[in-house]
Specification:
The protein has 2 domains: 101 residues, Roll (2,3-Dihydroxybiphenyl 1,2-Dioxygenase, domain 1); 76 residues, 2,3-Dihydroxybiphenyl 1,2-Dioxygenase, domain 1 (Roll). Helix content is 26%, strand content 32%. The chain contains 4 helices and 8 strands; from the N terminus they run H-E-H-E-E-E-H-E-H-E-E-E. Strands 1-4-3-2 form a 4-stranded mixed β-sheet, covered by helices on one side. A hairpin with a 5-residue loop joins strand 7 and strand 8. The structure holds 2-acetamido-2-deoxy-beta-D-glucopyranose (3 copies). This is VOC domain-containing protein.
Amino acid sequence: MKLFQEAIFLLSGLLPFTITASSSELTFRFNHVGISVANLTLQRDWYNRTLGFSSLVEVVGPMEMPAAPTNSSTSASTSKPSTIQAVQLQNPTTGAIVELIWLSSSMPASRLSTSSAAAAAVQGLFHFAYRVPDLDRAIRKLKEDGVHVVQPIAQGAPYVNHEQSTFAYISDLEGNLIELIQME
Ligand SMILES: *[C@@H]1O[C@H](CO)[C@@H](O)[C@H](O)[C@H]1NC(C)=O
Ligand SMILES: *[C@@H]1O[C@H](CO)[C@@H](O)[C@H](O)[C@H]1NC(C)=O
Ligand SMILES: *[C@@H]1O[C@H](CO)[C@@H](O)[C@H](O)[C@H]1NC(C)=O
């Protein structure tokens, strides 16, 4: 027990030092976006058809998850066993990866919304963005395919090394916001 406490003490003493000392030398390469979904089949098909995520990189489950050890009254949904299933899809052209995860006990988020302003009014991650070479063409095609355009094309803020940008928002089947951006 004493050893254990000393180990904790050591860890808590070392950790902040280690992080401060080396954070500028660490490398963080963007890898994927993860989305908790209500219906894995429908969402997988949507990301496949709409955004060209075609190759299945990884599948988890479906498998049973043990009940989470929690006594908090606010997380009742995690206190019973649930089923989990996850897939990773990759766009073969751009290399972008999206991970879709389904948890049988998950709840719909109150952030799922129909405008970017409403989505931004809830703190936390509110959209992810894909760059497209021709936004007009992309939006026209997506509309034809019945994709919900949440916010039409608008002029964006100037970016470093890019004078002009235009952007629009679409949403997936479950209301997750996806920004499409064109930079000149
Ligand atoms: C997902 O949607 C399909 C097609 O509507 C349906 O057959 C299936 O039961 C749904 N799955 C879940 C987990 O709701
Ligand atoms: C996605 O669609 C393509 C055809 O457009 C198909 O070849 C591929 O198997 C699909 N991938 C998944 C993971 O459903
Ligand atoms: C949860 O359990 C911990 C440790 O057993 C206890 O200290 C805490 O008061 C409990 N919280 C609630 C909300 O019951």
